Amino acid sequence: MAITWEERLTMPNQSITIRTVQSIKPDPKRDVYVWDRRLKGFGLRTTPTGAQSFVFQYRVNGGPARRKTIGPVGSPWTPMLARKEAERLLFQVYQGIDPVEAQREEKRKRESLNVRAYCEKFTELYLKQNWRGTWKAADCTLRNVVIPRWGTRPIHEITRADIVKVMDDYSDRPARRKEIHSVLRKLFNWATDRQDIEVSPLNGMKAPKAVPARRRVLNDEELVALWAASQEAGWPWGPFVRMLILTMQRRREVAEMDWCEVDLTARRWTLPAARAKNDEEHIIPLSNLAVAELERIGPRNSGLVFTTTGTTPVSGFFKGRVALNNKMLAYMAERRAQSGGDPDSVEIPNWRLHDIRRTGATNLQALGVPVEVTESVLNHISGTRAGVAGIYNRYKYDAEKRAALDAWDAKLTKLCANQRNRRSVTFVG
Questions:
Q1: Would you call 11 helix, strand, or coil by DSSP?
Q2: 162 with 259, same domain?
Q3: Which pLDDT tens digit goes with each residue over 249-264?
């Protein structure tokens, strides 16, 4: 801002020390200024109320005089520290840089480069363009892991120590740990390519060891227990888990199911390409149990099927699975006691929601369903549907998929029917 003589009273130049600060008396009508005799532009301002602050006055390339407040007298601004800051500002002026404008630019940069804003930009400009079928999972990692930790910090201030802390926090979840590392590596490499940071904090950092492929498959007893547990889980967890079992689709795909994708008359669910992992539309035939489940929920023209808010899909998968596991243990313990066994001996090996998908696929194979049909049910591009074969073989196996899921429906019905005399396990429809 421009400086006018009317607004200030200038005292004789003197070295600005603690003694100087203490000796200046306020003028009731105007600000009092003392300029340092050794450092050009470095000064002390005392207001009519007695408030004191260190200031720096300068001209850039012969332009008008400007004044920048360094900070109020007191912690942390001592005369010595304020002098060092004035020296830094003077050096900027000698380089033709306006300290006030430089500060504003730094503020703008910090706001645009804070981790929250940067992650949002990364999702729009990189993830959605390059990760397509999996970008939502990566975005979820950013929102649930990265932003809560570093959201207000500039991206260039994130250090190796910050990364190590996150990795340590997930040391007991190796698969999740590796996923987080992968997303962070892409984020900081992207920032480096854009020259928003000089070096990625992950440079030279070894990636977590590859996690062995999971092979967990729920046996028939566990499957029945899971169905029974889902009946006690309430809305929306119960119907959501049963739909996972009945359709064998990916967790997030089922969680984000929309009524506009469902045709109960034709008994099918059409997963749009935008939500499919392989970017191809996928038709899932609905068995009798699946149709009955959706009819009980109450079909609508549009909107999320599994939601409590109306706008966001069911979430909290980890907590939900833990609750289901506890209900499964109670169910199996009761059954064990009914058969004369020791209920305390019941154990359920660790399982995840994704294991439901593997369980369904394994059962289809046991039912004699061809591999290529099983892969089509899962919408899994590998084996018979990968490479050149997949390019030229565009057959969708719609009839075969329906027959396979109907066979799975029949097996589930039979499994639970065999347990009805010991404990109620019912199906809708």
A1: strand
A2: no
A3: 999 999 999 999 999 9
Phi, psi dihedrals of residue 28, rounded to the nearest 5°: -65, -15
On whether both 93 and 129 belong to a single domain, the answer is no
Query: If residue 53 lies in a helix (H) or strand (E), which one and from where to where?
Result: strand 52-58
Selection from 241, 217, 242 nearest residue 363 by Cα: 217
> Which candidate, 301, 262, 258, 313, places its Cα nearest to that of 283?
262
Token duo for residue 21? 């600060």
> HSE on the CB side for 374, CA within 13 Å?
19
H helices of 170-313, in order, are: 174-193, 220-232, 237-247, 251-255, 288-297
CA atoms within 13 A on the CB side of 406: 9
Whether the Cβ atoms of residue 117 and residue 111 lie closer than 8 Å to each other: yes
Predicted confidence (pLDDT) per residue in 68-77, tens digit: 999 999 989 9
Neighbours of 310 (CB within 10 A): 7
Q: What is the number of other CB atoms lying within 10 angstroms of the CB of residue 127? A: 22
User: Same structural domain for residues 81 and 141?
Assistant: no
Residue among 104, 87, 109, 78 at smallest CA distance from 16: 78
For residue 287, give Cα distances in angstroms to 162, 282, 405, 411. 49, 16, 6, 12
Q: Which structural domain, as residue segments, surrounds residue 137?
A: 113-193
Q: What are the tens digits of pLDDT across the range 265-307?
A: 999 999 998 888 777 899 999 999 999 999 999 888 889 999 9
C-alpha–C-alpha distance, residues 125 and 155, integer Å: 16
Question: In the numeric block, which tokens belong to residue 374?
Answer: 């099983």
Q: How many residues does the chain have?
A: 429
Q: Domain holding 78: CATH number?
A: 3.30.160.390
State how many domains the chain has: 3
Q: Are residues 126 and 71 in the same domain?
A: no
In this prediction the pTM is: 0.61
d(CA 191, CA 327): 46
Tokens of 165: 């802390």
Q: Spell out the residues 6+ positions from residue 330 whose beta carbon is closer than 8 angstroms to its own.
A: none
Q: Are residues 99 and 118 in the same domain?
A: no
Task: Give the SS3 label for residue 263.
Answer: strand
Q: Token digits for 248? A: 């064998």
